[in-house]
Amino acid sequence: MSVCVWTSIYYDFIPFEGHTPPKRDSRGRLIPDEAYGHARSHLNSTLDQQTYTSSLRNAGERNRKDIWWIEPSGTNAVEVVENIALSFLDQGIQWFNFHNDLEKCFDEIEKGHNCYVKFRKAMFFAKQLGLSDKEKMYTESFHEEGRRIGRFT
Length: 153
Fold this sequence. Notes:
This protein is mainly α. The chain has two domains: 1-100, no CATH class; 102-153, no CATH class. Helices cover 48% and strands 10% of the residues. It contains six helices and six strands. It has a two-stranded antiparallel sheet with strand order 1-6. A two-stranded antiparallel ribbon has the order 2-5. The chain is elongated. The mean pLDDT is 95.
C-alpha cells in the first residue's frame, strides 16, 4: 500500500474554467478538488523506504520521493503519518506561504513558459494586483493564444 500527499491553492479571483465548478460548503465557501488548484505541488517523504522500493522494476519508481509505502499490516502507519506531518511542516507551510504572496507568485508565473494557461493566470493575477498595463498585455496574449489553439473564434 502507498499514499501520496498533494497540495493546491485555488485562487478565488480566477474564474472557474472546466466542466464541474467547485462545490461550496454550507457557509458558501469554495471547496474545490485539489486537481483544480491554480498552484499544485506534493510533499516528499523523508523516510528511508528502500525496503519497499528496491524490488520495483522501474528505476524511476524506485527513486520517487513523493510516495509513502505502508505495510499491508499497517505496522508502519504511525511512522508514515508522523513523517507526512513533518513533511507538511518542513515543505508544505513554506510552499503555501510562497503561493499566498501574490507578488512573488505573479513573478513566478511570468517566468513560466508562454502558453494559454500562463497568460490566463497572469491576466487575473495582474488584475488582482492592480497592474493594468500587464493585465492588458496578458489579456491580449491570452486571447491571441486562445484563437491560435482554437479555444476562441
